[in-house]
């Protein structure tokens, strides 16, 4: 199965998204298809052997929408300047095709662009440009190479167009409303300035014709409602545009008929003109659509921020000289120079120089990380001190930043199970509303003894008050903001299902090594007998252990070096398997090892026996050190608890979540670590292959379980858990298996992730309640239920205003999630 993300253009409401989804799912070879109305994207999984992307795009276009695929890294479109005829285009095409590594090239004279497919390993983008220049033409700057920039520009243009249409519409609709309403208000004693020549009683035809002149431009700028709405109606898949088109068309046609009656001398029909209703409805809908487009843009700000992190250019070494090129032209293997204050353009490994790099954009850690030859560097991280040269190893969509962006995009496009009901309702919503409008209109026509004007008011009100958009936007907008907010806080949530499940978690299982603890042994205590010095004991032990490959020995050496202690020369080094080591330093015989080694050499441990038991009870490993057959002291080593572990577990307890720890360590060590951080349940002496079974046992108790781990051996447990949470500093296998990845490797992000899930699901429920509630209450009111019992009759203009505000209110509520603060425990 292959997967793709296609940008969809032309959707106006949830019914459009449903229609595309259903159409694509009918194709043979489709595994999964999901349309996100808020991000305007189609996420599709398909069998590439039985179906192509082109076929998917064609069926989408066939039903009236446009599907656009992001181009791959090996394809590029280069604007070409200087072409004057088709022969010029042919010449450029031939010049490009002559280059080794170019697999395809077409030049369009009309658009003045060259579309080239090439193998980056054989030919550079700069060489493609050079070939165009050599042929006598200009290779212009590549615009739209950044898909994110292109998408943002398109959305900005769409918002600008909507605002322009709204302003033009309002310019004509406001005087239209004034002309229509003032004579009515006069009947109720409200007198406003009004031209005598437009008095509907004295000059009814002039009055009607002026209203027609004013409503025509409004209908003109709102033409998309009619072209899209009636097309969808003909295809038997009506959408929100169809409701507006039917309602306003009915009002205009009825008013045109009445204008003809006025022209025939039947002046009584002047009271039955609905031109202002159609005009104001279109104006209000355009206002709502403009506000909706702005709000939808704000839901994807997290992605925009991530995309904006990468630099636009890179300095590469070519023939020993520095050359600045666009980032799109960087190839794998290039040597890139990065100076202090500049950003790393792509992923790679340092080959020369030493510096400190701020990787907070990836890890959230504010402290710069030292980098030297052989160390990895990542795109968009900031070089702070020295100049380095590094080899490009991952470019384009393969960089860590690009992978994060893709992960967040995928998550934002996914659907949460909670959205299933809204999707089902959206699919049948518009046809049901049309039926209700017809039935309500017909019922009132009969009930009022043939009052067509009254029945038409009901019919139009029902059509324009119904809002499928609010239903369609309720879930995806909240998921987009929630996952985006998570990404800003270093929490990558892989999908809507994980986001929803996380809020139900009542038990969290932490792996011990590398998750609760640092994952590497550290010297914690140096205890000496009466005649020894602590620093000297550590120096002697580290000097003896220098030749050891055991992790505990290496930890002691690292501990001495961190204190600046100079190590001494060790002779006759001997590693005693399962016991410790022996070496000679300055003529002294140094023994370092466990109690069994000391017993074998008949060295008494009585002087430090109580201290030894205390250290073991704290989960530390005591290393006994003897000099010339006499106990000199103990160097204790432990895998120390992370600074964030205790506070993270306290936060989870405040949220009512039980915390368990799983480890292969013995019960005594596990209990000691658990006591330090406040673990509720300890699962000790568990073999790596049995971790998933322990998670299954907890689930068997009726618990919703999250597993937090970092190693390859945690992967099965991460998959078994209801929600798998991987530590960002862990293995790729763990991160691939997890539903949530914590980029900062801080356990305090676990309660933050759970809390973000709770807030997002609460927001979705609020949105769904409002969306369903609005339609359940609004449609009966529009159908005249209140009027039936002596209440007011809803004017179609107010119905349109309510409809416009409903989707905007859902979006505004979703945007409240942007105020989410990490570290909150509830």
Unreliable spans? none
**Main sheet characteristics:** 7 strands, mixed
The portion of residues forming beta strands comes to 15-25%
Average pLDDT score: 83
3D architecture notes:
With 826 residues, this protein is an alpha+beta fold. It is built from 29 helices and 30 strands. The strands form six sheets. It has a seven-stranded mixed sheet, with helices on both faces. Strand 6 and strand 7 form a beta hairpin. The model has no long low-confidence stretch (mean pLDDT 83).
Question: What would you say about this model in short?
Answer:
The protein is α+β, with helices and mostly antiparallel strands. The longest helix is centred in the N-terminal third of the chain and has 40 residues, at 147-186.
Keywords:
single chain, 826 residues, alpha+beta, 6-stranded antiparallel β-sheet, 49% helix
Question: In terms of topology, how is this protein built?
Answer:
Blueprint: E1 2-9, H1 14-25, E2 30-36, E3 41-46, H2 53-62, E4 66-69, E5 75-81, H3 86-97, E6 102-108, E7 113-118, H4 125-134, E8 138-139, H5 147-186, H6 204-221, H7 223-234, H8 240-263, H9 275-299, H10 301-307, E9 313-318, E10 321-326, E11 335-338, E12 347-352, E13 355-358, H11 360-363, E14 369-371, E15 376-377, E16 382-383, E17 388-394, H12 400-413, H13 420-447, H14 452-465, H15 468-488, E18 491-493, H16 496-502, E19 507-511, H17 512-516, E20 517-528, H18 534-545, H19 551-562, E21 571-576, E22 580-585, E23 588-593, H20 595-600, H21 609-617, E24 621-627, E25 630-641, H22 645-654, E26 658-662, H23 667-677, E27 681-683, H24 691-700, E28 705-709, H25 715-720, E29 723-727, H26 732-737, E30 740-742, H27 749-782, H28 785-788, H29 796-815
Helix pairs in contact: 1-13, 5-6, 5-9, 6-8, 6-9, 7-8, 8-9, 8-14, 9-29, 12-15, 13-14, 13-15, 14-27, 14-29, 15-27, 15-29, 16-27, 18-19, 27-29
């Amino acid at each position: 199965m292959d997967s793709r993300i296609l940008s969809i253009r032309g959707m106006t409401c949830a019914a459009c998204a449903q229609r595309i989804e259903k159409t694509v799912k009918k194709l043979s070879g489709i595994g999964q298809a999901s349309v996100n109305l808020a991000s305007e994207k189609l996420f599709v999984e398909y069998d590439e052997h039985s179906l192509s992307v082109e076929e998917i795009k064609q069926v989408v276009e066939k039903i009236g929408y446009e599907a656009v695929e992001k181009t791959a890294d090996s394809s590029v479109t280069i604007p070409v300047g200087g072409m004057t005829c088709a022969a010029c285009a042919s010449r450029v095409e031939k010049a490009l095709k002559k280059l080794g590594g170019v697999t395809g090239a077409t030049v369009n004279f009309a658009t003045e662009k060259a579309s080239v497919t090439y193998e980056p390993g054989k030919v550079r983008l700069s060489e493609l440009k050079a070939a165009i220049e050599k042929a006598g033409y200009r290779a212009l700057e590549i615009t739209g190479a950044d898909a994110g920039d292109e998408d943002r520009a398109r959305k900005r243009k769409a918002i600008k167009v909507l605002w322009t249409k709204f302003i033009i519409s309002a310019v004509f609709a406001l005087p239209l409303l004034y002309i229509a309403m003032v004579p009515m208000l006069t009947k109720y004693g409200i007198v406003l300035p009004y031209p005598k020549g437009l008095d509907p009683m004295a000059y009814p035809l002039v009055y009607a014709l002026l209203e027609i002149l004013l409503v025509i431009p409004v209908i003109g700028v709102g033409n998309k409602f009619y072209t899209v709405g009636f097309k969808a109606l003909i295809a038997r898949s009506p959408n929100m545009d169809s409701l507006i088109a039917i309602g306003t068309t009915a009002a205009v046609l009825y008013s045109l008929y009445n204008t003809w009656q006025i022209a025939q001398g039947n002046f009584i029909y002047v009271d039955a003109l609905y031109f202002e209703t159609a005009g104001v409805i279109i104006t209000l809908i355009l206002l709502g659509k403009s506000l909706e487009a702005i709000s939808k843009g704000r839901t994807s700000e997290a992605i925009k921020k991530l995309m904006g992190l990468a630099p636009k250019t890179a300095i590469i070494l070519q023939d020993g000289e520095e050359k600045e090129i666009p980032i799109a032209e960087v190839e794998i293997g290039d040597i890139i120079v990065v100076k202090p204050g500049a950003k790393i353009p792509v992923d790679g490994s340092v080959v020369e120089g030493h510096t400190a790099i701020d990787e907070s954009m990836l890890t959230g850690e504010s402290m710069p990380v030292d980098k030297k030859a052989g160390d990895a560097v990542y795109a968009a991280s900031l070089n702070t001190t020295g100049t380095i040269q590094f080899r490009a190893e991952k470019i384009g969509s393969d960089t860590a930043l690009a992978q994060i962006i893709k992960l967040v995009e995928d998550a934002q496009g996914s659907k949460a199970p909670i959205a299933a009901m809204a999707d089902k309702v959206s699919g049948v919503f518009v046809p049901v509303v049309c039926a209700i409008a017809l039935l309500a209109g017909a019922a009132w026509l009969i009930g009022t003894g043939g009052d067509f004007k009254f029945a038409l008011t009901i019919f139009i009100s029902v059509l324009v008050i119904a809002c499928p958009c609010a239903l369609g936007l309720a879930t995806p907008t909240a998921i987009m903001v929630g996952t985006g907010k998570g990404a800003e806080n270093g929490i990558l949530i892989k999908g809507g299902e994980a986001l929803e499940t996380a809020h139900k978690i009542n038990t969290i299982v932490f792996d011990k090594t590398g998750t609760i603890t640092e994952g590497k042994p550290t010297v914690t205590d140096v205890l000496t007998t009466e005649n020894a010095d602590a620093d000297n004991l550590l120096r002697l032990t580290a000097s003896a252990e220098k030749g050891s490959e055991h992790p505990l020995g290496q930890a002691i050496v690292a501990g001495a070096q961190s204190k600046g202690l100079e190590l001494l020369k060790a002779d006759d080094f001997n590693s005693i398997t399962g016991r410790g080591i022996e070496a000679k330093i300055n003529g002294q015989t140094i023994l370092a090892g466990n109690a069994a080694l000391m017993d074998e050499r008949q060295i008494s441990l009585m002087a430090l026996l109580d201290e030894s038991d205390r250290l073991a009870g704290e989960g530390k490993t005591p290393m006994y050190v003897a000099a010339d057959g006499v106990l000199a002291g103990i160097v204790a080593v432990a895998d120390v608890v992370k600074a964030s572990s205790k506070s993270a577990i306290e936060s989870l307890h405040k949220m009512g979540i039980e915390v368990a720890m799983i480890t292969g360590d013995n019960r005594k060590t596990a209990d000691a670590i658990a006591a330090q951080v406040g673990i509720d349940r300890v699962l000790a002496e568990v073999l790596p292959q049995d971790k998933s079974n322990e998670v299954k046992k907890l689930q068997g108790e009726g618990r919703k379980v999250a597993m937090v781990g970092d190693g390859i051996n945690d992967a099965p447990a991460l998959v078994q858990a209801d929600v798998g949470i991987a530590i960002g500093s862990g293995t790729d296998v763990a991160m691939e298996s997890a539903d949530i990845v914590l980029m900062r490797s801080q356990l305090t992000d676990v309660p933050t992730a759970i809390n973000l899930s709770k807030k997002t699901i609460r927001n979705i429920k609020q949105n769904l309640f409002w969306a369903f509630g609005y339609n359940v209450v609004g449609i009966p009111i529009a159908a005249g239920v209140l009027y039936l019992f002596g209440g007011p009759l809803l004017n179609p203009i107010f119905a349109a205003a309510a409809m416009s505000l409903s989707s905007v209110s859902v979006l505004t509520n979703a945007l409240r999630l942007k105020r989410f603060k990490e570290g909150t425990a509830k």
